[in-house]
Input
Amino acid sequence: MNKKNSPKNVTDSLPPAPPLVHLADYLPKLPPCIARKKVAWFTGGAISSKKLANDDALCKGPLVRQKIGETVIYPTEYFLAYLESRGVRTIIVPQL
Output
């Protein structure tokens, strides 16, 4: 498909990933992409696939999503940036 006939939302290159603050240490430990149907596992149940699908529909989800067949996947950098935008904080518990 050439650019003239391609849909507006399809692009050949990804925009630069937002810088990560709190979750950058996880990036090398995770796979390059995370499937929408597995986000609950990757977030320990904090974000469901339905919540993510709803955020995508409202243009509030990760900046980039891709499809393999019918499966929606997110490049990990963009998914982590989405989690940070949702208010992820690191809390260090003091030792008693």
